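Reviewer 2 asked us to include a model.

Predict the structure of this chain.
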Amino acid sequence: MTISQISLAFKNCKKEKKPALITFTVSGDNTKKNSFKILNSIAKYADILELSFLHNCPIADGGQIQNSTYRALRNGTTLNDTFQIAKKFKNNNPNKPLILMGYYNLIYQSGENNFLKKCKLSKVDGLIVVDLPWPENKKFSQKCKKKSINFIQLLSPTTSKERMKKIIKDSHDMIYYISMLSTTGGKLKISPRAILKNYNKIKKIIKNKNKNLVIGFGITSKNISYFKSSDGCVVGSEICKKISHSIKNKQNPVTNVNNMVKRLRKELS
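Predicted model (structure tokens):
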């Protein structure tokens, strides 16, 4: 079986003894053109990139990502635009993993098979579907696997050990650990040490070394260095906030986000 780009990215990071830096941006923010430019620019520093496909009720997302989402919706960004941005990015960066993240409603409306077909045509490497939990996601996850698309399972601080074992068993190359009970972008409610304590407990349950556990929610440039021992860290809200500030101050969001991700990479190295 061919190794996935996501798995390869983690293997390369482990060889270099550093965690993977995973960035999150919203498709079409602040324009469709800039959305692609930002992805293309930060690919030099990010190991894996997440791109959100739009939903008008992003229930798991905090204020910063909601602002980005509403800007993109006002720009008229559609699901097909997201696939176009993804395809253009992957044509430019064929070895850089790209994960689409969003909500099940759009997948359901498109039809699962049709959605996955578009993912393959756009060369998407993985999917995060926030409101499709295990075990409801089992059939869709299997469909993804048949298409060589990673389905990223989610774990939280309240996931029981028994449930966790079952989710891990059904997971693919990457598992997402939600660091705290919150929407995205909230300040850490517990210390990095406590987050890592929970994280390390989960790592002991994961027997397969090819399954990588990343930490998301509340990760910023101020605290990311605490998580160097993890397989990877996800930064999203801070990037969306940087785009908002760039627009407000009439600055170039592409340049500002690029510089920010460059600093994040340095913090994790």
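The CA atoms of residues 242 and 257 lie 6 Å apart. The chain has one domain: 5-268. We have added this to the supplementary material.
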